[in-house]
Amino acid sequence: MARRFRKQRKMNVQQALEFLQNMHAVDSDGGSDIEFEMEEDSDASDSELEPEPECDTVPPAETPQAPLCKRARTEPTEQTQRTERARHGTVWEEQSVGAARSAGRLPAHMVLTETAGPTHHAKARIASRLDCFLSLVDTEMLTQIRDCSVAEACRTDAKLDLTVDELMAFIALCYVRGLYGGKSMDMESYWSEIFGLPFFKETMPRNRYRQIMKCLRFDNKDTRAERLLADKFALISDTWNSFVKNSIACYKPGQNITVGEQLFLTKSRCPFTTASKPDKFGIKFWIAADVDTKYMLNALPYLGKDPTRPAGERASETVVMRLIEPFTGKGRNVTMDNFFTSLSLADKLIAKNTSILGTMNKIRQELPPSVKVDTPTELFSTTVMTSGKASLTIYRCKPKKSICILSTMHPTVIIGTEKKKKPDTVTDYNNTKGSVDVLDQMARLYSVKGGTRRWPVAVFYNMLDLAAINAHVLYKTCLDERENRRDFIMGLACELRQNHMKTKAAATAAETAVRVTATLDVPLAPGKTTQC
């Protein structure tokens, strides 16, 4: 302990009493501690405490003592935080980096209240690869495709006695073609005597495959004109919507979901083809994917201007709210790029117990003015500003470039210890932003896509690619199997054609039996005997 120093003054009893009487009331507990020390006076006695009789002699005046003032305590004063008002009217307040905005329990939009993985509906019906596929592309969808294809064949005076098992065998051939990178190969080569694959020859003849492909349809042509007035996607909307609905019903995502876009390359003529990079032409899909497993959770085709969009709402906000609607209210986070991110979208998701993390375009009106001016700052420096429950991180990643990240899942922004001093908002965004891009790369690796002039067939190819990825995820999580995707697709193709091969073998055996019976029933020519 620090040594305590005290002032010492020598007083007699009379001086001490006068000093105490002259003290002010406010000084009774303040000032420095004073220790009284009595003088060694042999004549001092208790009689000195009694008042002396009045006399003409005036005692010498005592030297006036300065009043002892209480020492003021210096309280730490809070630094005034810089505030800015955006053009949109939003008020932003600068926050110290690493300082917690609140203490205690985490808010509801940051606590996951649902177990990730396959649903009970999926676990109860999945026991093989084929069950995983049929959970997504069910028999009702296959029956509808079969009926529409047969109706198209009858309309063109072609006989197509197509069954669901044969349609599944047709899909199996599409998957095998994708495994061997046949999207740019001529289909004739797969039935070649020299370079062909036995799998194709054993499954069905080449001309039969051509006939099914020619008549493949997904809707009723008699009611198509009426449905196209309200739905540009009417030629395959029923099949696509059923696939998306089954995908949602079979799997629950984890903590993080990524929203992005996929461009499926095709030159088929359709009213909503998009020209964009890296492909010049294609059909765009808005996709929500699980960060951990790359499972396709929800998907919407881009059809141009949406007449059902609420007035005053951005198109990007409408897309995100429709994609995330089945998964809100459970404490999940949604990561997106600057096309989707906005402060109004963050408020809407917060109301549904869902957080947001994404980069922001600097042209947004709700951003503070200092961000748009891009004032030069130190390299790898971080500035954090808050507005309500949202925090805006401005990180100087390059000498002449800074990025803005909006987040409602980071009540505290912490700077990393590496060389670039990245804040945790940037690190978390980098770890969760690429799920849709990875999903698109996986779909292209073993794509069943082939040359076609009909855009519904191109959408059907994309559906098969996404169904194979989702079925593989269900197979690994439901049955606890560790099998790479190529082997899974090979096994799935064999199971898809299994019933058709049994039917084909039975028909072949019946034809052989009839042929043998007919041969035995032929009468012998007269005059000839059989040779034993």
Automatic annotation (TrEMBL):
Residues 72-88 have a biased composition (Basic and acidic residues). Pfam families: DDE_Tnp_1_7 (PF13843). Residues 30-55 have a biased composition (Acidic residues). Residues 131-472 form the PiggyBac transposable element-derived protein domain. This is PiggyBac transposable element-derived protein 4. It comes from Merluccius polli (Benguela hake). Residues 24-88 are annotated as: Disordered.
